[in-house]
Amino acid sequence: METLSNLFSFVLHIDTYLGDIINNYGVVSYLILFLIVFAETGFVFTPFLPGDSLLFAAGAFAAIGSFNIFLILGILWLAAFLGDTTNYWIGHFFGQKIIDSPKIPFINKKHIGKAEEFYKKYGGKAIFLSRFVPIVRTFAPFVAGIGKMHYGDFIKYNLAGGFVWVFGFTLLGFFFGNIPVVKNNFSLVVLVIIGLSIAPIIYEFVKVRRK
Predict the structure, then answer these.
(1) What is the signed CA dihedral for 74, 11, 155, 196, rounded to 10 degrees?
(2) Share of the chain above pLDDT 70, in %
(3) pTM assigned to the model
């Protein structure tokens, strides 16, 4: 319970924690951010790491000179792309072993069959939209790999989704993160970001249910 509380605090106060990382590690902070984004998108067991809020905070710090905006955009986009790619191939090569593992009961053959059917019809849209939904963006490329989604299709939406996600949230932080009302209410801003992130998937869900 304490770990969950600490994690929630880390996400809500990512600006404070990121400031400490920059002060303590300097240029190594680029590598730390790369690893966080890579792990959040690349491994199904680390969906709890900050994503949207971290990008926004990184942009805000870039605006005051703590990061080079062009370098941080490139590094984070690369991390997002490599993370999703890694997750896809883990699902592709080790999916069956993971499905058969009793430690992961929520993944089974029935779910995989549905994933194959889903990605065959909505693959591109699913991969792109998942970028903007916490936790889902960690799971989506893994399921796409298990479902044997064509890698040529996957990589296009991986690149596009990663670009829009990283550049969108980071530049929002760059241009608006240091406005006094935003800076003084960062926890509320993070909650709004999370709400906006979930909105696309809710829209798609409602649209499908109506059909």
Answers:
(1) -100
(2) 79
(3) 0.82
